[in-house]
Write a structure and sequence with these properties.
- The chain is mainly alpha-helical.
- The protein is built from five helices and two strands; from the N terminus they run H-E-H-H-H-H-E.
- Helices cover 72% and strands 4% of the residues.
- Helix 2 (19-38) runs antiparallel to helix 3 and helix 3 runs antiparallel to helix 4.
- Mean pLDDT is 89; it is low at 1-9.
Length: 140
């Protein structure tokens, strides 16, 4: 905590990102995955697109833990969704097959996502400072 106060006392105008804000950001991808798996039509389709935005926003968060948790949540979701699409291409036109693949995806994603949310809630989250942008100096 003293390093953050020191940065502000030196006249730098850095912004502080709270630990609670970082924890909340780390949960976004997991919450979206849970909702998309529980209500697959049409939310799974929309979540596939929206998840790319959430991933892009959080992967380079000032707190590296947010990027870590987001990346692993994305690995899980895209891996299961991609496998489901690749397998479902060969299904006949019968809703039973699609319900089975959805149940398998839910059986994989729901427990793993809940466990990840548990880990996020029990991790230590500290405040971090966003360093102000310093333009390159021209040494001529």
């Amino acid at each position: 905590m003293t390093e953050f106060i020191h940065a502000i006392e030196d006249g730098e105008e850095g912004k502080i990102v709270s630990g609670a804000s970082s924890r909340r950001a780390a949960k976004w991808f997991n919450y979206g995955t849970l909702v998309a798996v529980l209500v697959p039509l049409p939310l799974a389709i929309f979540w596939t697109g929206m998840s790319m935005l959430i991933y892009a926003l959080n992967k380079h968060h000032p707190n590296p833990k947010v990027g870590h948790y987001t990346q692993w949540a994305a690995y899980r979701f895209y891996g299961v969704a991609g496998t489901a699409v690749a397998v479902a291409v060969f299904f006949p036109v019968n809703v039973t097959y699609y319900l089975v693949i959805w149940a398998i995806a839910a059986a994989i994603l729901i427990p793993w996502t809940i466990y990840d949310l548990y880990k996020i809630n029990h991790d230590t989250w500290v405040d971090c400072v966003i360093e102000p942008h310093r333009p390159f100096e021209d040494n001529q």
